[in-house]
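Protocol step 4 of 5: obtain the predicted structure for the target chain.
Materials: sequence only (see below). No template structures provided, no constraints applied. The aim of this step is simply to have a reference model before the mutagenesis design in step 5. Sequence pasted as it appears in the construct record:
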Amino acid sequence: MKYAKQWKLNAFEVMNNIEATQENQIKEVAKLFADTIQSGHLVHTFGCGHANLPIEEMYPRIGGFVGFHPLCELPLTFFTHVRGEMGIDQFLFLERCQDYADAIMKGWNFDKNDVMWIFSHTGINAVNIELAIKAKELGMKVVAFGSAKNCGDRKSGHTSGKTLFQVADYVVDNCCPLQDASVQIEQWADEAHGIHNFIGPLSTIAFITDVWMTMGATAEILEERGVKMYIHPSHNQPGDTTARERLAECVEKYREVTQRC
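Step 4 output (structure tokens):
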């Protein structure tokens, strides 16, 4: 269990670092989100590959609440095949493809008072950067979560020359190493040839930590203001006789706020 325990220690370290270093940034973002939701506008959420997982974690799911609108572009998720149609090669091409984000945004109606929340570990791929630029051109604030501190001088994949973290108005660091995977398999390491085989990525657990710290802070602000939240209940909880009605209320509210999209 050596590698298993090492991953757990690494994950706890990342989570503790997020709490210790990102609290002020998370509070700022939470206030922006609370203002947006209270005013009847939307926080649009976007990510590619494994960075789509925090999008799925937010809404719709038990404990999530209305106000967050997932922009899940299927070819950019990991609901792909390794080979054949929608394969990994196509995915890697698309996330680096300039003008694809422009095409994605044409499928939706955005408001200048909405917010765009983008997840990207490295912040260098063209589709994320272009989505942020287009959102700002429409007047929206852009929030980026990723390995901003460790991105360093990684070259942007967009012709603007900027990374996602340089474009965004708000940045929350996921406190992960840039290579993401954190546990080295000792047998196949070859220092002389620069070969390091790692397992156990950390950015997903970091993104989920960021998400629920941010959404928790947002919920707290909305509660303090007396704003009703439409929270998805568990409809499998024994003894809860109102869950299905509350779920239907959430769905109806979601339809209402996303109707213009």
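Step 4 remarks: The longest helix spans residues 203-225. The beta strands are 43-47, 68-70, 115-119, 141-146, 170-173, 181-184, 198-201.
Proceed to step 5.
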